[in-house]
TrEMBL record:
GO terms for molecular function: DNA-binding transcription factor activity. It comes from Flavobacterium johnsoniae (Cytophaga johnsonae). It holds the Pfam family HTH_1. This is ModE family transcriptional regulator. The lineage of its organism: Bacteria, Pseudomonadati, Bacteroidota, Flavobacteriia, Flavobacteriales. Residues 31-89 form the HTH lysR-type domain.
């Protein structure tokens, strides 16, 4: 008795740096939320994440990147905030480009799966 089973290859991408994980989808979402909200505090709230954890992730990314991905804006009227640097915006773009190529490859390989 044979039934046709459907299989797919799933991949999860993260980029490592010598000192540990540099970028994964969670950090990319954090960067996107900082970009959208203009603040680490609001980005953390959007993600139901503690501010402290978000801040630590930003610090970690900034230390592991060639140049900082997020810069803090000093308070003034209406308070400070944060914004992505050009490197931060590029990190999002590059991550999604690499992820797409890997997922496209996995999709092609899926068609060759036979057990």
């Amino acid at each position: 008795m044979s039934t046709d089973k459907k299989y797919s290859i799933e991949v999860r991408l993260w980029i490592e740096e010598a000192e540990g994980p540099f970028l994964g989808i969670g950090k990319i979402w954090l960067l996107e939320n900082i970009q959208k909200t203009g603040s680490i505090t609001n980005a953390a709230k959007e993600m139901k994440m503690a501010y402290r954890q978000a801040w630590q992730l930003v610090e970690e990314m900034n230390q592991r990147a060639e140049s900082p991905l997020v810069e803090k804006l000093l308070g003034g009227k209406g308070g400070g905030g944060a914004r992505l640097t050009d490197a931060g915006e590029k990190a999002i773009t590059v991550f999604y480009e690499v992820e797409k190529r890997i997922k496209d490859f996995a999709q092609k390989e899926t068609q060759n799966l036979k057990f």
